[in-house]
Specification:
Helix content of chain A: 25-40%
Helix content of chain B: over 70%
Oligomer: heterodimer
Largest sheet of chain A: 2 strands, antiparallel
Strand order of the largest sheet of chain A: 1-2
Shape of chain A: flat
Largest interface: A-B, 55 and 55 residues
Largest sheet of chain B: none
Distance between the termini of chain A: 48 Å
Radius of gyration of chain A: 30 Å
């Protein structure tokens, strides 16, 4: 019971891990972070303090370097001019965010198309029913899982359970009527990934042949 | 169906992929050096061109650029850290 109610992402208090482990992790973290810390400290030093040997640990912080990032003189005695850093910064943000509009496919950028790729994949997945005999089992009453809706982001255990049984769209939280209503427009038989169909209903609506274990809705085709 | 069912399921993976992709392109240097011009220069290239001058390497200036360069990635990772952890560790924990 305790393992079911405890979420995987929950943080344990320090005392539970032990002070030794906590101290060790802190020391290792400090060693890893030290170069970054040194860079940040150097950014607030003057030129002489940055080059001082032995290194200066206690100094008067200055923002001179940050001012020179945006505007500085390129030779001794000349006037300070704009360095163009803001433009370079924008260029980096732009490159990281999106490449540009892909007008052949749609009006979204390629970066947005990258985000849309999982949706493209979902369209080719078979839509399964929790009571379907071809399915791996009824997930709604699995004894080891808490009754948490799978579409909630906190449902670690349920999605882990999906990973063990293959990719499963979270249709098990919907009732039969809603499932059928949503499945009808794009449904072709059993919706295999290779595009073929198995026992497709020629009328285009879901009937007993399409949904063997669900309550049969009215079917217009004679089957 | 996509926004209520599919998207929440893949959100952790999308977040992890986005973080790794952005970090990769944010640090990219070689292509930016070879292909960019004066108007299309990125920060790593500008940082490289800061090195040198009449008084040697200006370590303070370089460190200041580096500090500013770190801020967006750190903010982005902190915003997505919950999704990132779930995306990276997804499928690796067996009860």
């Amino acid at each position: 019971m305790a393992t079911n109610t405890r979420t995987l992402g929950a943080r344990r208090p320090i005392g539970e891990a032990g002070w030794g482990w906590t101290l060790g992790a802190g020391i290792v973290s400090l060693i890893y972070f030290f170069p970054v810390l040194w860079i940040i400290l150097t950014a607030f030093k003057t030129h002489n303090d940055a080059l001082a040997v032995p290194p200066v640990w206690f100094f008067t912080p200055t923002l001179e370097n940050f001012v020179q990032v945006f505007s500085r003189a390129y030779s001794v005695g000349s006037e300070a001019i704009d360095t163009g850093f803001a433009r370079y910064f924008f260029n980096s943000v732009f490159i990281s965010g999106a490449v540009g509009p892909d007008r052949d496919r749609d009006r979204h950028g390629r970066g947005l198309r990258l985000l849309a790729l999982p949706a493209e994949g979902q369209r080719h997945l078979p839509l399964r029913h929790p009571l379907d005999p071809h399915d791996a089992g009824d997930r709604r009453h699995h004894p080891d899982l808490p009754d948490v809706p799978g579409h909630r982001l906190g449902g670690h255990l349920r999605r882990h359970h999906h990973a063990l049984h293959g990719v499963q769209p979270a249709v098990h939280d919907l009732d039969d009527e809603e499932l059928l209503r949503r499945a009808q427009p794009g449904r072709r038989g059993r919706g295999r990934m290779d595009g073929s169909s198995e026992g497709a209903c020629s009328s285009g609506s879901a009937c007993r042949r399409c949904w063997p274990a669900s309550p049969p809705p009215p079917c217009s085709a004679s089957s | 169906v996509f926004f209520r069912v599919c998207l929440p399921q893949v959100l952790a993976g999308i977040a992890a992929t986005a973080v790794f992709g952005i970090i990769l392109t944010w640090n990219e240097f070689l292509f930016a050096l070879l292909l960019s011009g004066a108007e299309t220069r990125t920060i790593p290239v500008a940082m490289y061109q800061t090195i040198g001058g009449d008084i040697g390497v200006r370590w303070g200036l370089l460190a200041a650029i580096e500090t500013l360069f770190l801020v967006p990635v750190i903010v982005f990772v902190f915003l997505l850290q919950n999704h990132l952890l779930r995306g990276v560790t997804f499928g690796t924990i067996k009860r």
